[in-house]
Amino acid sequence: MLAGRSLAKSARNPGAAVNGVITPAIFMLLFVYLFGGAVAGSTGEYLDYLFPGILVLGAGLSGMLASGLTLNIDIKKGVFDRFRSLPIARSAPLLGSVLADVVRCAVAIALLFAIGFLMGFRVHTGTASAPAAVALGFGFCLNWITVFLGVLVKDEGAVLAFGFVAFIPLMLGTSSATTLIVLCPMAIATYNRKR
């Protein structure tokens, strides 16, 4: 029931969910067609290299900040005080918000796979469920980080700032931002060589 409440709020204000698909899709188009030939020699090879990082970006942006922000706003408006008076489990508001974000994340991942497929990406392991499951699990874990931030921090602007600060190192550790070892600073190049 509370997951449905969160999804209904997203349906009325779809900006964050659309941002979670549009931003990674624009990055994918930009990086593949602008830099792909120069970096990897062909756009197809670079798309295979870039797509996992784009999935991480999509999994993070699609619902990552929605949980933290909605919880923070609900706490400030007193909605959580009303939930405490209801005969529901204490974890129900948190789980409802996170489960709604998992649905948002699954839709974003499916759309990113469709866009990647149209661009020429193919899963070479025989099934697309493994990378999608990893991205969905990653999004689920990121949601709990933002739930923690949403409950801990008093201002929604601070939730956004801390959420992005926590998310950027994870994004930079994937294929999307660690392309050329030769052009990277020494610390990042050493990290990439050990991977």
Summarize the structure in words.
81% of the residues lie in helices and 0% in strands. The chain is mostly helical. Helix 3 runs parallel beside helix 6 (129-152). The radius of gyration is 18 Å and the shape is elongated. Residues 176-183 have low confidence and may be disordered.
Low-confidence stretches are: 176-183
In percent terms, what proportion of residues is strand?
under 5%
N-to-C SSE string, H for helix and E for strand: HHHHHHHH
Which of globular, elongated, flat, extended, rod-shaped describes the shape?
A: elongated
Mean pLDDT across all amino acids:
74
Proportion of helical residues: over 70%
Distinct helical segment count: 8
What's the end-to-end separation, in Å?
43 Å
What structural class should be given to the helix and strand makeup?
A: mainly alpha
Largest sheet: none
Tally of extended strands? 0
**What gyration radius follows from the Cα positions, in whole Å?**
18 Å
